[in-house]
Amino acid sequence: MIDRSATAVRPLPDELADRIDLAAPVFADNGLDATRIDDLAKATGIPRATLYYYFPGKEHILAHLLSRTLRQMTATLSDVAAEPGTGRERLARLVRAHLVFIGEHGPTYRLLFAELGRAASLVDIAAGVDVAILSPIRQALRDGHNDGSLHIDDVSAAASVVYGAVLVTGMQHLLLGTSGDLANRADAISNVILRGIGGKPTPRQSRRTTTGGT
Amino acid sequence: MIDRSATAVRPLPDELADRIDLAAPVFADNGLDATRIDDLAKATGIPRATLYYYFPGKEHILAHLLSRTLRQMTATLSDVAAEPGTGRERLARLVRAHLVFIGEHGPTYRLLFAELGRAASLVDIAAGVDVAILSPIRQALRDGHNDGSLHIDDVSAAASVVYGAVLVTGMQHLLLGTSGDLANRADAISNVILRGIGGKPTPRQSRRTTTGGT
DNA sequence: GTGACGATTGGACGATACGTCTAAGCTACG
DNA sequence: CGTAGCTTAGACGTATCGTCCAATCGTCAC
Q1: B174 within domain boundaries
Q2: Mutate which of A161, A181, A208 to disrupt the B interface (most B C-beta within 10 Å)?
Q3: In A36-181, which residue ranges form alpha helices assigned H by DSSP?
Q4: Cβ–Cβ contacts within 10 Å for residue A25, how many?
Q5: Given A180, A196, B7, B85, which is the most exposed site by the fewest CB atoms within 10 A?
Q6: Is the CB of B190 under 7 A from strand C?
Q7: What's the domain range around B118?
Q8: Directed axis angle between helix A58-82 and helix A106-114, to 10°?
Q9: Which residues, 6 or more positions from B87, have their beta carbon under 8 angstroms from its beta carbon?
Q10: pLDDT, tens digit (0-9, with 9 covering 90-100), for B116-157
């Protein structure tokens, strides 16, 4: 329907590429719908006519920003995933790094999912999420299975569990403003994922954590 | 910012309450933004002026629908959760029922999350999600812990893992149109959640499931 | 130096959709 | 039969979109 160019129809000059980033907080504050092109123009200092010169519409500006964040996340997570260690260790690091990323890019991350439905039709952000997030997870899972540090029957199911845990935890944090540090939750989550919640009492006797909840 | 009334400012007559449901597919197809009030009027057969008589705007109509779906989900899941059995059994049933619900209410469910960012500002849908979904999960977890069928250290972390797994699986299905039946994935997910992916080879030797994936 | 071309931008424009409002018709109840 | 509230068509006024044009400016080739 619309051309697949992730960013803009015309190549975006570097100077504008920098300034357009200033649009992110505006989108984050108001959402796609309530954001006026004029707001973006004001916030970025780029005149409205120029914005339209480079972007077909505000959705494309948002898509540009989101795919940028997605690339950032891809870079961050793949760096973390590349560090040495067993698959199990790397998985734990991925979980932590992901939560930290959510904490740092809260508004944008929330935007990513809030507008995923809309923006996904312009860019294949859904696919980008897969590459950025699920793919390193799957890799760590496979590696862990091979090096014996993990035990995976169904890679895709396990990846869904891992990602889901992170996503829900992050979203609770972003939407409901739950308990303090996201990074702190990483251990609790990794624990559950690794040990499971099946009946068999695990090696270390039940060291109670924050049993409470919201 | 806007009053918290979940549905409408005026009490909605039953007859209209029925018809307004016809607006759901319209929203689901187009999203909040692209849906015109006139479209809703046409789809529901309720004149525009009447819509405005009962709802302050289309966002409130959407909020009304979403909270309705949420109530439905609450009912469905709490029914399932109420069935007899160990916490572990009920948890597995919850996972399955939830996935089935997603499969059946695909468009609306997707909408629920696509517009959550926006709608959450009108209604406390985020809180509704918590009640509808997380709360029965937590209950099953606690019960399972007490009856010995589960082993939970951190209820809220475990609940996040469970819900996240379901959510991500469901979303993959809805957005990417992954493999066939959602209900089929329920077992794989429950397996991972219960047994964990930690190295210790589980009691029953690794009965390989669908090791493949996307 | 000069002309050409593309980037840049202010401002005007038509279109669309929103949400408001009015007024007329209708129903129901006392 | 009269009042009150529900219902609805249609007319507005407003906001924002996206398009378009014309003026300006910088750069490059000749």
Answers
A1: yes
A2: A161
A3: 37-44, 48-54, 58-82, 87-104, 106-114, 116-119, 125-129, 135-147, 155-171
A4: 13
A5: A180
A6: no
A7: 64-195
A8: 120
A9: B140, B141, B142, B143, B144, B145, B146, B147, B149, B150
A10: 666 555 556 777 777 888 899 999 999 999 998 998 989 999
Q: Tens digits of per-residue pLDDT, B152-195? A: 989 999 999 999 999 999 988 887 776 668 888 999 999 899 98
Q: Give DSSP secondary structure letters for A140-190.
A: HHHHHHHHTSB--S-HHHHHHHHHHHHHHHHHIIIII--SS-HHHHHHHHH
Would B43 be classed as within a structural domain? no
Residues 6+ apart with CB under 8 A from B40: B23, B26, B46, B51, B58, B61
Q: What is the pLDDT of residues B192-206, one digit of tens each?
A: 999 887 765 444 444
Mutation target for A interface from B156, B169, B173, B202: give the one with most A CBs within 10 A: B156
Q: Which residues 95-114 of B are in CB contact (within 8 Å) with A? A: 110-111, 113-114
Structure token pair of residue B111: 């909408």
CB atoms within 10 A of CB B118: 22
Report CB contact under 8 Å: B161, A156.
no
Token look-up 């597919």 returns B25
Residue A82 to residue B49: CA distance in whole angstroms: 60
Inter-chain residue contact B199 with A149, CB threshold 8 Å? yes
Of A154, A157, A188, the CB nearest to B157: A188
Q: How many residues belong to chain A?
A: 214
Rounded distance, CA A178 to CA A181, Å? 9
CA of B192 to C1' of D19 (A): 55
Euclidean distance between CA atoms B165 and A134, whole angstroms: 13
Residue B101 maps to a domain: yes
Q: What's the total number of domains in chain A?
A: 1
**Residue in A158, A161, A206 nearest the CB of B153:** A206
Going residue by residue through chain A (214 aa), what tens digit of pLDDT does each one get?
333 344 446 788 888 888 999 999 898 888 888 899 999 999 999 999 999 999 999 989 998 988 888 889 999 999 998 999 999 999 999 999 999 999 888 878 877 777 766 655 555 677 778 888 899 999 999 999 999 899 898 999 999 999 999 998 998 888 777 666 888 899 999 989 998 777 554 444 444 444 443 3
Give the CATH number, domain containing residue B102. 1.10.357.10
